[in-house]
């Protein structure tokens, strides 16, 4: 209810700040005052409420700031209005830094908990970075500018940890590698440079035979241990 009142009731509060000027300038002043009141109102929200609804708040903010900055052209005394807008911008940015940092910390803690309780997620995090790849094995975040680095980091991490992988780990790695290759097919059509493509081919050339040998070795090792 607080968020609803904030997003839809601010305009009413702003009306008290406008004077009887011509209609165009009155509307412009209203937009500036609405923006200022909106930002001030955020400071009165409980932290938990603001954080929980931050995406909605930010969307409303973007609308308010756009209206306020557009209104400057219709104001005779736009220097004073600009000063108000700048002050409110500073207030909002301070709030944004705080709440987005809190949300990021919460997300990181959640990812750590999920990773610790899920061996496959721990493996994905180890090879591609914490939280980069989930159960759906989506590599949508990989693009023509970072795909070479993704392959290189994957290969380096694989080499560093290959002695510790179980047979199940190798099965999971195979699925991840195939998903990354599938994404590469898409990225090639989006402007992947021939130079980066060549370097990726070199990594794949070194990885494939190494993986096959290591995977067979892991199965043999586990079979031998089971017989002991």
Strand tally is 0
Helix content: over 70%
Determine the strand fraction and express it as a percent band.
under 5%
Radius of gyration computed on alpha carbons? 27 Å
Low-confidence stretches: 14-20
Mean pLDDT: 82
Helix/sheet category:
mainly alpha
Q: Number of folding domains? A: 2
Sheet of most strands: none
The shape, in one word, is elongated
Order of helices and strands: HHHHHHHHH
Secondary structure: elements and pairs:
Blueprint lengths: L1 H13 L8 H20 L4 H6 L1 H18 L6 H40 L1 H10 L18 H15 L5 H22 L5 H34 L1
Helix pairs in contact: 1-2, 2-4, 2-5, 4-5, 5-6, 7-9, 8-9
How would you explain this protein's 3D organization?
- With 228 residues, this protein is an all-alpha fold.
- It folds into two domains: 2-111; 118-227.
- 78% of the residues lie in helices and 0% in strands.
- It is elongated.
């Amino acid at each position: 209810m607080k968020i609803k009142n904030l997003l839809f009731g601010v305009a009413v509060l702003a009306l008290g700040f406008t004077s009887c000027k011509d209609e165009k300038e009155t509307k412009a002043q209203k937009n500036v005052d609405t923006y200022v009141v909106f930002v001030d109102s955020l400071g009165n929200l409980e932290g938990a409420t603001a954080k929980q609804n931050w995406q909605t708040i930010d969307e409303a903010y973007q609308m308010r700031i756009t209206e306020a900055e557009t209104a400057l052209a219709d104001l005779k005394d736009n220097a004073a209005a600009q000063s108000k807008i700048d002050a409110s911008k500073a207030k909002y940015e301070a709030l944004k830094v705080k709440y987005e940092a809190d949300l990021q910390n919460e997300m990181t803690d959640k990812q750590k908990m999920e990773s610790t309780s899920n061996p496959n997620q721990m493996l994905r995090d180890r090879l591609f970075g914490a939280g980069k790849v989930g159960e759906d094995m989506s590599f949508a975040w990989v693009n023509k500018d970072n795909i070479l680095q993704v392959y290189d980091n994957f290969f380096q991490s694989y080499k560093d940890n290959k002695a510790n992988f179980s047979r199940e780990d190798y099965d999971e790695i195979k699925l991840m590698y195939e998903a990354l290759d599938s994404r590469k097919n898409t990225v090639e059509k989006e402007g992947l440079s021939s130079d980066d493509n060549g370097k990726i081919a070199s990594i794949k050339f070194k990885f494939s035979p190494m993986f096959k040998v290591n995977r067979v070795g892991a199965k043999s090792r586990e079979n031998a241990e089971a017989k002991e």
